[in-house]
Write a structure and sequence with these properties.
By secondary structure, this protein is mainly α. About 70% of the residues lie in helices and about 0% in strands. It is built from 15 helices and four strands. A two-stranded antiparallel sheet has the order 1-2. Helix 4 runs antiparallel to helix 6.
Length: about 450
Amino acid sequence: MNNKYILPAAGAAVLLPSVALAQDAAAVTAEMVWIMNTLLFLIGGFLVFFMAAGFAMLEGGLVRSKNVTMQMTKNVSLFSLATIAYWAFGYNLMYPLGTWSVEGVLSGVFGVGVLEAVGIDLAGADDGEYASTGSDFFFQLMFCAATASIVSGALAERIKLWPFLIFVIILTGIIYPLQASWKWGGGFLDEMGFLDFAGSTVVHSVGGWAALAGALILGPRIGKYKDGRVNPMPGSNLALATLGMFILWLGWFGFNGGSQLAMGSVGDIADVSRIFANTNAAAAGGAVSALILTQILFKKADLTMILNGALAGLVSITAEPLTPTLGMATLIGAIGGVIVVFAVPFLDKLKIDDVVGAIPVHLFCGIWGTIAVVLTNGDANLGTQLYSILVVGIFTFVVSGVVWFILKATMGIRVSEEAEIMGLDTSELGMDAYPEFTRG
C-alpha cells in the first residue's frame, strides 16, 4: 500500500514536510546565533584578559627598578581579587535583569553569580536569544578587572599593598558594578539615552576617578616636586613598557569588538570588523599626534608620551567605535593623544603624581571619548552625555575618596619614607625584580 494514502487519526495534527523543514531550519539558526554570540564573548573575553599582562608590563616598565616586583604582585593580586569580588556580589549588582530595589539605581538581585547547568540545550539556556551566562560573566569580569588595573599604575611606588587590595575589592565588588548597572544594567542613565558602547565612562573614567581620589589623598612620591620644579623619575625598562602598550592595543580589539554583543548575522560580524578597524585607527591617531606634538614642544620625540598617546586614542574611541568613519576615528584618537601631552604636565603643575599617566589617559580621554559620541552617532545627546559623565564621576570620586580616607585613618595607605626610598620590592616584599642591578 502506498503510504501517501494513509490518513491520520481523527484530531491528529498534520505537519507538512515543508513546514517541518522550516521549523528545523529556524531552530538550527537560533542555535547558531546563540553559539556565535557566545563565541564572540569568549574570544573577546580572553583578549581583554590579556590586557592584564599589558597593564603589568606597562607599569613594570614605567616604575623604577626598585618597585617592579610590587607592581607585578599588585597586578596578579588585583585580577584574582576582582574575579572573586565580581562573582560574590558584583555581577548581580551590575545586572538586575529588571529587578530593582531602587528603580534604575540599585539592583534587587543579590548573591553570587550562578552559571547555567551542565550540558544544556537552547531551551535550557538562561537567555536563548543572547549567549551563555558563563560567557557573559567571563566577558564582563574582564572589564571590571581592567578598571582596577588603571588605579594600580597611578598610585605606584608609595602605596602599601594590603590597603590597595582592600580598595580593589570594594571597587570591583561594589563601586564599578553599581555605576555600570545605571547604563549596562538598564538603569536610569540607560533610560535617559546615555551612550557608552564599550566603556569610555563606565570603565575608563571610573578607573581614572578612583585613581585621582587616591593620588590626592596619598600624595606625591618623595622628591617628585621640589623647590618649584618637577623632577623626572625615569622608568626601569621602556622596552617592557612598549610591549605592554602593544599588548593593550591587541586586547582592545576584544574590548571594543566584543561589545557588539552579537556575531550571529552578516550585519553583526560586519560591524565587529568595522569596530576593529576604527579601534586600530584611533590608536594610530593618538600615537602619531603625540609623536608630532612632543617633537614640536620638546624638540625631541617622547616615547612615554607616544605610548600613552596610543592608549589615549584607544580610550577615546571606546565610547563609540562603530559609527565613525576611519578618518573620523583617527581624528578622535589624535585628539586623545593631544590631550595626554598637555594633561601630564598639567597634573604636575597641580602636584598630582601619576606614575604611569593613567589619569590623563583613562579619565581625561574617557571624558573626551564620551563627548565625542555626538560627532558620529545621531542618537546621542550632548546634554545626556555630559550629565552621565558628571553623575558617574561624582559618585566614583566621592565614594572612592571616602574609602581611601577610611583606609588611611585605620591602616595607613602610604609606606614609610625609609621604605619608599629603599623601594617597595625590598621593604614590602623582600624580593627584587632585578637583584643584580638594585643591590650593591
